[in-house]
Amino acid sequence: MKGFLFGILTMILILAVGLLFALTGFVNMRADKPPSSMETAIAGHAVDASVARAATKLSNPVAANEENLAAAARLYREHCTLCHGDPAHPKAPLNDSLNPPAPQFMDDKADMPENQNFFILQHGIRWTGMPGWKNVLTDQQIWQLVTFLSHMSDLPPAAKQVFSEAGAQNQPASGVH
Prior knowledge:
By secondary structure, the protein is mainly alpha-helical. It has seven helices and no strands. It has a domain at 65-169: Cytochrome Bc1 Complex, Chain D, domain 2 (Orthogonal Bundle). It has helices spanning 2-23, 37-54, 66-79, 81-84, 114-123, 139-150, 157-169. Helix 3 (66-79) crosses helix 6 (139-150), helix 3 packs parallel to helix 7 (157-169) and helix 5 (114-123) crosses helix 6. The termini are far apart.
């Protein structure tokens, strides 16, 4: 019993020291400095677990047809390319400024289930640059984007055309990389 109580007290002390460390400003919150590998691992697993738990088990109601994919390509071009890239900029202009970095969908395809991508697009991810879009886009538009993410590598001609126009419209300003 003594060992058990000692273990509990030790854990409380470790948590208290960690909290004191964070609350006194010793945890670096700068976005221009990469987080530690431990922070990256813990945060990544926490986000994945939170999204998996919170995302309602919905089926995508949007058909992956040319009309929906072209509309989604337009939405992606208008709202997503700056952080997630496009064919002309596989590494997005803001990639080096975001920490944690946003997924670069030209090289790292969206691989979460569609209901989880819908949840992320709707609500965003706290402490990242990912906003929640539910106050800007309709559910239909969000589902179109989810469908687009699932079909980026096999777009029909009209959607490819709209998507490839993204590079022409989102050229970074001179000196911006």
